[in-house]
Specification:
With 69 residues, the protein is mainly alpha-helical. It is built from 3 helices and no strands.
Length: 69
């Protein structure tokens, strides 16, 4: 799960904790290894997002590439 703000991350964490309390049979999905995988994906997403083009930049790049064909 990727949160786009601290408030959203806190709301997600609270919802997950409530769900886990209501469904302890799901605890095996929340092992430290699985949580580490999620954290790694979150870091990767953040890095990729930071490198992403704006819609205008994407369009300019596509138009440039089309012109080079």
């Amino acid at each position: 799960m990727v949160a786009l703000s601290t408030a959203q991350a806190e709301a997600i964490e609270e919802a997950v904790q409530k769900a886990r309390a209501a469904r302890p049979d799901l605890d095996h999905h929340f092992t430290e290894g699985r949580l580490d995988e999620g954290r790694e994906l979150e870091r990767t997403y953040g890095t990729l997002r930071a490198q992403a083009h704006t819609p205008a930049e994407s369009r300019a790049l596509i138009e440039k590439l089309w012109g080079e064909r």
